[in-house]
Predict the 3D structure of the following.
Amino acid sequence: MTYIAKPKLQHPKLAHNSLGFTHRDYEGKVSTLCAGCGHDSISAALIHSFFELNIEPHRVAKLSGIGCSSKTPDYFLGQSHGFNSVHGRMPSVMTGANLANRDLIYLGVSGDGDSASIGLGQFAHLLRRGVNMLYIVENNGVYGLTKGQFSATADKGSKSKKGAGNMDEPIDLVSLAIVMGATFVARSFSGDKKQLVELIKAAIEHKGAALIDCISPCVAFNNHPGSTKSFDYVREHNEAVNAVEFIEGKPEIKADYAPGTGTLVRQHDGTYLKLRKLAAEYEPTDKSAALAYLMASHAKGEVVTGLLYVELESEDLCERIDMTATPLNRLNEAELCPGSAALETINAELR
Amino acid sequence: MQSRLERTNDFVVLFANVNGSGSASANRIFARSLIRMGIPAGSRNIFPSNIQGLPTWYEVRVSAEGHLGRRGGVDLMVAMNPQTWDKDVKSIEPGGYLFYDSSKPLPPSKFRDDINVIGVPLTEICNKQYSDPRQRQLFKNIMYVGALAGLLGIESAVVEKLIGELYKGKDKLIAPNLEAFHIGRDYAEKNLKGALGLKAERTDAVRDRILIEGNDAAALGAVYGGATVAAWYPITPSTSLAEAFQRHCRRYRLDDKGKNRFAIIQAEDELAAIGTVIGAAWNGARAFTATAGPGISLMQEFIGLAYFAEIPAVLFDVQRGGPSTGMPTRTQQSDILACAYASHGDTRHVLLFPEDPRECFEFGALAFDLADRLQTPIFVMLDLDIGMNEWLVKPLAWNDAKKLDRGKVMTAAELEAGKEFGRYLDVDGDGIPYRTYPGTHPTKGAYFTRGTSRDRYARYSEEGPVYVDNMERLLKKFDTAKKLVPAPVRKNAREATKFGAIYFGSTSVAMDEAIGALERTGVHLDTLRLRAYPFTDEVLDFIRDHEKVFLVEQNRDAQLRTLLLDTGRVDPAKIVPILHYDGTPITANFIVSDIGRRMQELGRAAIRVVAS
């Protein structure tokens, strides 16, 4: 498929968003991943989300590490700058990019090998710094490009395609993210576009470090019986704790929703999330309760999805370090260079 | 009676102390007082990887002629550390002086016949004067400065002023320090008249020079060079560079609301530090990291990415011995090859070699222009000697007419006007393509950044010829760098000679003195001070012009020689390595004796090796 250029023609009745863009304006190159790959569904959900949020594509910067998932930023938002960086080290590149221009929207795309194995350190530190971004892990529990080795998120006891069992404990990225201080933590499934799109939209609009751990089955190496990251397994064990809906601006309905249909929560920046509880006892603003729930569910073999933790009064790295409002990459000479007079003062102090 | 060194404004004092005993500030007052009297002095701290207890030395070179490198040898030993007594006493020049705490009697075997011994019962005086044990220890330091001031003739008013400046804000410390100083001084004047043949006499040889550490100056260069993002991980001897950047930014980089026009990230490791720099620079900010050799080792993969993806980055490498702890508090020039060829694949990088803190400032600012212009990592190669010692240098200078060179960045207006954009397209024939900052234009100029698997328009490609095309352009770009980096400085000997010497970095100060000393013995050498890699034709011309060229380096493997030979245009037999790598800064005596020995081996007239 990759040698086929995407046709430029588009259906005349394609919907336009408020900026006048169609879905096609949010697309990228033709994917080179395997047919049926969960990652392509995530790319589609990203395209859909940016379209619905009315974001100008060129105002987004896409950063990734190395691996199948990290290739995908080439397949959406073709008018955005992208950076396919180094295996496991995208978080630091993301940190630097974020500091250089706080006005862009940042999307980090990574995989479970990239984030949980080689890049666990940078992943953790990125979240504790509160870098303002959506960081999405396309989690399939396996190395695709090197053909089927376990990654660090593979469940203990799960089987590889060749039948080998994984003996190591899995790293649960959402629990880790909550502990590390991420202020928006969600899990979703590439097979559930509706849930995923809403989570992506809410995460993009969230100020601070937002993580979505998206289970994304690998059709080539990890979609067999015995795998806990297969389409069938995730569908059977998916346990959504809530349904979230991102609402831009001030919502019309101010009254509480009828019991069981949802509540509105206001975030620090004035945006609202409509949360509908599916698991009655789940409270996504309670950190320790969330962690306890996640551990208990994991022990039962369930894959908990939904908005797992949100800190409504979040702040991001640029605020924490008291950075000027002007993006650093736009500061001019006069703002940067103290000049010869200041240097004379310094010289005098050093005599 | 043994001989006595009789010298004015030209001698070496070595303080041997115990780390953490509070000697550092007293020793600094001593060195500064000489400078305030107009006498040039260079001071070097030789310290352990330790906070308290291990031996530490502080060497002060006093030279009215302005030789501020290490000379070699010690004329006056201030032996305050019993642990290193034997070694310290041994290092004194014949006819030199041993200053010690004579409170406790020592057997004659602990001394030497050919040196002059000056005892002051410091502990005894302190114990009488103070009851608090910490005070007894601390005031002993300023007391020996007082005694030395009396012996050398350092003006009291100068020291009093320095004490006032040092304890400004902690004013209650001023009076007791002054008291201790005068107790020491009075003791010397009363009991030790004429005991020391070394004298400090007021002169005007310092002029407008300033005292500054290279790390401080380099950080200031980064501020003047427009750096806004710094990411670093603590590592000796580079830590004070990042800390100085923070200090200068707090002073000069606040907007009118008091918000920071800078971002400093203390990263979780060196990999994250360089990654942050690369991310920031990719996004159009000027960014740097400060590190040492082990940090460079850890950054290798990212440095390769920056080279191939053509992202500007500035790395200050404050070189040291290593790895692990211990030698890392000692100086070396041993990261040259690690930096020049850093990373996987075929890479080579631009290196700058500042000779002193003044050039640390100059190159520190220049590095950001070079990085943007060449869209590649630039390494500023300091070492511990320059970075962490205060050097007496000409004042820092800045030309306000100079503009930051942001290199080839295509703007929204240019894209809108239809200017062709190919991220890796060589439009000007210099190997340097145009780049765009993310978010520049709604429909033009976006590209996907990768390592090497792309064509001139940044489209994915695994084609061999496309790869080769790119690699050849990168070589062309490296060639362009030769025209942009600081040129070497050539000095010809007074007499025509077939011999030359090449040196670089912190070796310069010792080299200047050594060349003069060699000349007095009849050995004439033309010299070339390298200031950058890649080497310009002037370097190759210099080698071609001479029969033999001594290449002075502070590492074991003659790393710079390897780089020279790699040009393919240098005859290896012509380049004679002169190598000093024990962790202490190279001395003029070492250079004189090693070059002298080599000249003898080369069948030249034997020269008299100058001992001091």
Remarks:
- The two ends of chain A are 70 Å apart (CA to CA).
- Chain A touches chain B through 60 residues (CB under 8 Å).
- Residues 28 and 206 of chain A are 25 Å apart (CA to CA).
- Chain A has one domain: 23-335.
